[in-house]
Design brief:
Blueprint: E1 3-12, E2 15-24, E3 35-41, E4 48-51, H1 53-61, E5 65-66, H2 68-77, H3 79-91, H4 96-180
Parallel strand pairs: 1-5
Antiparallel strand pairs: 1-2, 2-3, 3-4
Helix pairs in contact: 1-3, 3-4
Length: 181
């Protein structure tokens, strides 16, 4: 019986999120599992990953095999790096303090990369909003100018029209009663 660390799909159509679970490899994708160790939401940018770090390492050390996607998620969160460093400690390549030091340095670098991506997204969003605001302002000014021009032409036509229309209406009213009589 092989134990896998894999994703169990939840959510609605086109908006899936996943639970990271430890399950028997013969169980259905969304079926029975042994333990839930986290969640993964690919809909947000950057993707949101909530993971019980200690449980993941424990299951990996017990022999659970992650699927390709889960291996990527675990690598992103540092679980695979920590496991690799702990294997180095077991083999005697370095001590636990050195492993923790290397892991902390790796995590700081990873956090800086994620923060840089978030800052880039925010800056790009703000820049895009400024461009949209300028374009919208330009369109609004054009519309206001067209409406003002149209209203000025309509006002000029109204001032001239009643004077011209008043004379023919008066003749028409006078002409009609004479014909009927």
């Amino acid at each position: 019986m092989s134990v896998k660390i894999r994703l169990a799909r939840h959510g609605r159509k086109q908006h899936a999120y996943y639970h990271i679970v430890v399950a028997n490899s013969r169980s259905p994708r969304d079926g029975r599992f042994i333990e839930r160790i986290g969640s993964y939401n690919p809909n947000s940018n950057p993707a949101t990953i909530d993971l019980n770090f200690d449980k993941a390492i424990e299951w990996l050390n017990n022999g659970a095999q992650p699927t390709d996607t889960c291996r990527t998620i675990l690598s992103h969160k540092g679980v695979m790096m920590k496991k690799h460093l702990l294997e180095g400690v077991k083999k005697g390549a370095f001590d636990l303090a050195e492993a923790d030091k290397r892991f902390d340095a790796w995590m700081k670098e990873k956090e800086n990369a994620v923060q840089a991506k978030k800052d880039g997204l925010t800056a790009g969003f703000n820049e895009d909003m400024k461009k949209r605001l300028v374009a919208e302002t330009k369109v609004n000014e054009t519309r206001i100018a067209e409406i003002a021009k149209k209203n000025a032409a309509a006002a000029a036509a109204l001032i001239v029209k009643p004077v011209k229309e008043a004379e023919p209406e008066a003749e028409a009213e006078v002409a009609e009663p004479t014909e009927e009589a």
